[in-house]
Amino acid sequence: MTELKLERCKIAVDAMGGDYAPKHEILGAVAAMKEDNNFDLILVGDKEKILKIASEENIDLNEKVIYHSTQVIEMVDKPIDAIKAKPDSSLVVGAKLVREKKAHAFVSAGNTGAMMAVSTLIMGRIKGVSRPTIGASFPTTSGDQKCIVFDAGASVDSKPQHLFEYAVLGTIFSKEMYGVQNPTIGLLNVGEEESKGNELTFAAQKLLKYSKLNFHGNVEGRDILEGTVDIVVCDGFVGNIILKFGESVLNLLKTRVRNYADKGLINKIKALIVKSVLKASLSDMDYQTHGGVPLLGVNGISIIGHGSSSPLAIKNMILRAKEMYDKNLIKKFEEALKTYAITK
Amino acid sequence: MTELKLERCKIAVDAMGGDYAPKHEILGAVAAMKEDNNFDLILVGDKEKILKIASEENIDLNEKVIYHSTQVIEMVDKPIDAIKAKPDSSLVVGAKLVREKKAHAFVSAGNTGAMMAVSTLIMGRIKGVSRPTIGASFPTTSGDQKCIVFDAGASVDSKPQHLFEYAVLGTIFSKEMYGVQNPTIGLLNVGEEESKGNELTFAAQKLLKYSKLNFHGNVEGRDILEGTVDIVVCDGFVGNIILKFGESVLNLLKTRVRNYADKGLINKIKALIVKSVLKASLSDMDYQTHGGVPLLGVNGISIIGHGSSSPLAIKNMILRAKEMYDKNLIKKFEEALKTYAITK
Question: Which of A227, A304, B116, B182 is most buried (most C-beta within 10 Å)?
């Protein structure tokens, strides 16, 4: 991968993936290029449709950036079946571009399961990775510090070794992308004491404790937002549920404030103030600011977005992929997996 | 238990349990009696200490309500060891009062693990219950509707049968305590589709689907606050983490609003408005309103409170125990476990 670093970065974008594809994808990609013109864009999808939308949006799109593909994997499609049935889908074609080294990164707001599957199966895994993982970043009470939870849903029924690998990948990611010098790692558990836990955490605790990683120990559900550690590792079942639960908190807040506003004019005015304050105070809880979640452990940069991604979210996903490329993350993952490998 | 129903309700309160014991316990108990004088109070703990605090607080406490015990299980004590080492602790003595039918309910803000252990080991389990469970109730976007999550941390590494039993106990609890006619049950999962899940959910799904319970199907992390169902069942590992994560959300909000307020006078005024609106809109997220969580499945009423319980929280825990007694919940659990039992 070191040679690739010398090349100009090429980012493939699934133009057909999201709920508002290809419009949001085109707008997001164009916005990303305006902000950083130091990469080549490859829009994967139906050429005719892409050009039509670009023209409707008065965007002067260079035809050459389009990599034509004829099929689309829909949101409702079953990932594995769809990959087989639709070999010329934008998702399959985009992942192949990375495998064939025609692109360094692939970004999609399409079917999440299918994106994980094409990334893992087509791009392949980095040596030393048993299972790729998704990291979800949470705001904390400690100012700008983030807490990233691995795995946020790439796989369930994890083994202790998987959690250990998530910790290695997470360490590099936190260091390179968030500038944390020596990221601390917490093992998500039902109590801080070593005597607390389930079968998985007891075994994972040992692996982490005797590794060269900066292991803090067990952490609880509250420690994520409190920023007790930089990285929290857990099984993807738990991580996925926390991520979705967390996303729904803002909805609950909005609904409650809306109901409050409905009770009279003074309430309405107060509610407007609340809305503006919360917007200012919780801006980092807006998924659009980071756009999507990276799938770490696959042999290439893979970023997965919300189906409902806005152009802003798409733009930020692309810029994030660019940053991961600039920082040579894949190479650094490879090295870390060797450095921290458990010698039996 | 039907005969017991005819008796006057007796509620034992662990006077030595919480961080502010026995003061908050005494104040809470006296407040509960002011609100409902239709039960007998039994304050379990050090007689001298209790009388001293009562006198300091100018409370005319009838000595007869005190059930003297000499030992105290501390917050840091290991549950099982402590139970053996301290047979005359308020926790052990209180649970024994229930086993010996001298009390119908036991309420404690003490060591949570020890309270679960004494309730399970000393009171015993209701026939048909493999593992007792804790239910944590969450606010939802659907007005007054609550969503109760079982298990919120009583045990980990649950088997499918345990989740099924949680659903049975939860159904009765939701019906009787929250007045929900035919409570819907969701199985917490990483996706709604039947094809999604881990080993536990695949097996539990089958048990729930073919039972006579009102099973809605799989639900995701976001469905808890959205109120998609009345009851969510999951392993205690996941439930505990969601509960603690959820509790920390309000802290994050408070910190963020406080930081906002620090940035000038106008911000300060706006932040005061935000604080008052959130307080009004999210009052049901304050744990003090319901006080504690009931441990369901044990042969007696057992309510576990926060270590830091305020007198208000203690009062509400006692009144909740009283309500569970008035509604004859233990008897109804027994019957439901027979009605819904899976015939192999």
Answer: A304
A265: contact with B, CB 8 A cutoff: no
The total of other beta-carbon atoms located within 10 Å of residue B212's CB is: 11
Question: Which own/partner contact pairs does B46-55 have at CB distance under 8 Å and 24+ positions apart?
Answer: B46/B15, B46/B16, B46/B22, B46/B70, B46/B72, B46/B90, B49/B16, B49/B22, B50/B15, B50/B22, B50/B26, B53/B22, B53/B23, B53/B26, B54/B26
Cβ(A317)–Cβ(A288) below 8 Å = no
Chain B: closest CA distance from residue A177 (Å): 23
Instruction: Please state, in angstroms and rounded to a whole number, the distance separating the CA atoms of residues B261 and B263.
Output: 5
- Reported as type and span, the H/E element at residue B325 is helix B311-326
| E strands present in chain A | 9-14, 39-45, 66-68, 105-108, 133-139, 146-150, 185-188, 215-219, 231-233, 292-296, 301-305
Looking at residue A298, the DSSP 8-state letter turns out to be B
DSSP E strands, chain B = 9-14, 39-45, 66-68, 105-108, 133-139, 146-150, 185-188, 215-219, 231-233, 292-296, 301-305
Q: State mean pLDDT over B259-276.
A: 91
SS3 B319: helix
Nearest chain A residue to B222 by CA distance is A245
Smallest CA–CA distance from A281 into chain B, residue: B256
Q: Which two tokens stand for residue B206?
A: 């089958």
How many CB pairs below 8 Å do chains A and B form together? 149
Structure tokens at B165: 């039993």
Q: Which of A160, A228, A242 is nearest to A197 (CA)?
A: A160
- Kindly report the length of chain B: 344
What is the helix (H) or strand (E) element at residue B321, kind and residue range? helix B311-326
Per residue in A227-281, pLDDT tens?
999 999 999 999 999 999 998 988 888 898 999 999 999 999 999 998 888 888 8
CB proximity list for B243: less than 8 A, separation 6 or greater: A221, B136, B149, B152, B153
For residue B1, pLDDT beyond 60: no
Beta-carbon contacts of A53 under 8 Å, excluding residues fewer than 6 positions away, are A22, A23, A26
On the CB side of A235, CA atoms within 13 Å amount to 24
CB atoms within 10 A of CB B78: 16
Measured in angstroms, the CA of B143 and the nearest CA of chain A are apart by 9
**Which chain B residue is nearest to residue A153, measuring alpha carbons?**
B190
B16 touches chain A (CB under 8 A): no
**Whole-angstrom Cα distance, residue A244 to residue A221?**
14
CA atoms within 13 A on the CB side of B88: 6
Contact at 8 Å (CB) between A112 and A278? no
ipTM for this prediction:
0.91
The neighbour count for residue A127, using CB atoms within 10 Å, is 10
Helical (H) or strand (E) element with B276: helix B265-281
| Residue A1 confidence class, pLDDT cut points 50, 70, 90 | very low
- Within a 10 A sphere around the Cβ of B283, how many other Cβ atoms? 12
User: Which residues, in sequence order, are bridge partners of residue A313?
Assistant: none
The structure tokens 């690998």 sit at A165
- Of A37, A92, A51, A52, nearest to A69 (Cα)? A92
- What residues form DSSP beta bridges with A66? A43
